[in-house]
């Protein structure tokens, strides 16, 4: 992927100062503006190539669509549920986060809430500040020997588990992705949620907020829990349904809740906050000097590495791009885009496309199939789309346009190549290309193999005609008459008595119609 130009970045929240300093050191202009209203952000965002946020800035589709220059949204933290990632992807904007920077802080706050719940620490503090000395009221229970259910066994879930094991808690959990043998290696036995709920004295959730985790703890799941179960949510508001939690607290089914996050922040459900068995923080999981320093530094370094073309780390919507940051991949990306553009030029009168199939051939291209497909789609859609296709949005744009994109890989010890097959209006087009030296070349078009590989650069004329010398002389004559110089020429072996020819030209013909009497099909383009 060619380096992405980011000259101006807006930081819309309180992010560690090292972020601004690191970006500025790399020549990026940084503006910090906090607590902007939605309208202010929408008005401002068009002036920036990059936006850095934490969890409070709602980067909605409106904001994204107003960001006409936006190329990167950096989340100095983990959860990206405040960013409309789908809208960003459609616009070809990379969204990245710094998921490990605040793991320990979020895990430590979770443990602090579990401990506070077990001994009523916040309530006891409040009571003393009220001038009381009430030792009976705040009788607690040991954590030793109790069962902690951890839903979501990723980075934070794991750190919570190992810390609470040191208090003698038994840790059980559930995660649809983390393999049971992996979590078992750090002491968490996995089971289904239905098996987990009735065993737990404490439950803590550590999943992202998404449709499948919204309301994970609800009336039905609370009903399956032990009476008096205590719950902690240091992940996202809504994973524990707030209304169901309130009902469970009122009935005593839930014995206490430690909440750091809320469906709306600041929370609207004041009765929940005021409940005597609820202890809470204003989303402080990542609010430590260490976590902020890490996240601020990580997001700045990731943006600078992306801008300088060194690496792409932390992208949540463009994983395929991570493998494009090497000099070798640049040439293959150029090949994919160029082949897409050649096919587009030669099929201009026949669109729309219905299917695109890209096959990578050869061991060294095994990991490139994903971005080769995207690159080919970028070439095919380049002039068709207003939104400027790039490697981030190529596949969503293709889907939106009704194009099915397939990709496959074939092993070969002999050569490396890319095959692009495009179905358009019942016809099928097939191009084969490769990289020679560092130059993308076209080897074959519609089963006609070029005798000399066609360098995919400059002004190119493709035409289909018989291979007779007279036709070639006539085409050369037509170019000369139009004041266009012939720079190279390659013809192919015959396929059904006809050949595809390619000529490199000093400029494009002002009227390609002059070739109509000479060729069956003709197309020109500049690469
Ligand atoms: N309170 C705070 O300030 C902070 C909150 N967070 C929140 O914590 C969440 C977790 O962070 P990490 O552990 O770093 O993320 P992670 O991605 O390492 O772990 C999340 C785990 O949840 C699992 N998961 C997904 N769907 C699930 C389901 N239906 N049931 C059970 N597990 C499921 C995933 O497989 C994954 O292993 C973040 O998404 C973020 O929203 C993160 C940092 C600070
Ligand atoms: O990283 C996360 O997911 C968090 O929830 C932390 O949010 P914050 O950066 O403190 O607004």
Automatic annotation (TrEMBL):
Residues 9-317 form the D-isomer specific 2-hydroxyacid dehydrogenase catalytic domain. Its EC number is 1.1.1.95. Residues 112-285 form the D-isomer specific 2-hydroxyacid dehydrogenase NAD-binding domain. It catalyses: (2R)-3-phosphoglycerate + NAD(+) = 3-phosphooxypyruvate + NADH + H(+). Residues 331-425 form the D-3-phosphoglycerate dehydrogenase ASB domain. GO terms for molecular function: NAD binding; phosphoglycerate dehydrogenase activity. InterPro entries: ASB_dom_sf, D-isomer_2_OHA_DH_cat_dom, D-isomer_DH_CS1, D-isomer_DH_NAD-bd, NAD(P)-bd_dom_sf, PGDH, PGDH_ASB_dom. Coiled coil: none annotated. It is an enzyme of class 1 (oxidoreductase). Keywords: Acetylation, Amino-acid biosynthesis, NAD, Oxidoreductase, Phosphoprotein, Serine biosynthesis. GO terms for biological process: L-serine biosynthetic process. Pathway: Amino-acid biosynthesis; L-serine biosynthesis; L-serine from 3-phospho-D-glycerate: step 1/3. Homotetramer. NCBIfam families: PGDH (TIGR01327). PANTHER family: D-3-PHOSPHOGLYCERATE DEHYDROGENASE (PTHR42938:SF22), FORMATE DEHYDROGENASE 1 (PTHR42938). Belongs to the D-isomer specific 2-hydroxyacid dehydrogenase family. This is D-3-phosphoglycerate dehydrogenase. It comes from Danionella cerebrum.
